[in-house]
Amino acid sequence: MNQRDRVPKDREQVEQPTEKAAKPAEQPAAATTKPAQEQPATSLSEILLRAERAYAAYIDAQKDVAKAYRESELEAERAYKESEQQAKNARDGSIRHSLKTRDEAMEKAVKARDEAIAQTEQAYKSAKEQAEKAFKDSELKAQNAYDEGVRQSLKSYEETIAQAARKRAATIEQAWGVYTKTTG
C-alpha cells in the first residue's frame, strides 16, 4: 500500500468523526435558516487532528524511504558477496585447471624420462644426459605454466574483488546521498 492509498483513508477517518460531531450541532441549526447549514464547520480540534494525521503519514513515508534505502544497501552487499563468491569460484577453478595441466605435463615428462632412461641404459652416456635435460626442461615448463596460471588467477581474483568493492561503495554512497538530499 503506498502513501496515496493511505491519505484518502486518513481523510475519511478525519471527516467521519467530525461529521458525527457536526450532526448534533446541525440539528438545532436545521430549525433555523438554510445558509447556516452551508457554512463549513472546521474546528480547531479537527484541524489539529488533520495535522497530526498528516504528520503521522509523513513519518510513515520517511520510514518507508529509510527502509527502501536500507534494502538497497543490503542488495548492494548481496551483489558484492555474490561477486566475491564468483571470483573465488573462478580462482579455484583456474587453479584446479593449472594443477591438472601441470600434473599431465609432469606425467608426460616422467614417462618421457623413463623411456629415455631405458633407451640410454644400453646407449651412450650422452644420450642419458640429454634425456635428463629434457626432463628438467619439461618440469621447468610445467612449473612455469603452473606459476603463470596461479598468478593470472590471483590477479583476476583481486581485480574482480576490487571492482565489486568499488561498485558496492559507489552504490551505497549514491543511495545515502539521495537519502540525505530527500530527508535533509
Offer a concise description of the structure:
By secondary structure, the protein is mostly helical.
What order do the helices and strands come in, and which of them pair?
Elements: H1 3-30, H2 35-38, H3 44-120, H4 125-183
Helix pairs in contact: 1-3, 3-4
Please characterize this protein's 3D structure.
There is one protein chain. With about 180 residues, the protein is mainly α. The chain folds into two domains: about 1-25 and about 45-65; about 70-184. It contains four helices and no strands. Helix 1 packs antiparallel against helix 3 (about 45-120) and helix 3 runs antiparallel to helix 4. It is rod-shaped. The model is unreliable at about 1-40 (pLDDT under 50).
Provide a count of the helices: 4
Quickly give the structural class. Answer: mainly alpha
Averaged pLDDT: 80
Characterize the main sheet.
Answer: none
The count of strands amounts to 0
Count structural domains. Answer: 2
3D shape:
rod-shaped
Distance between the termini: 25 Å
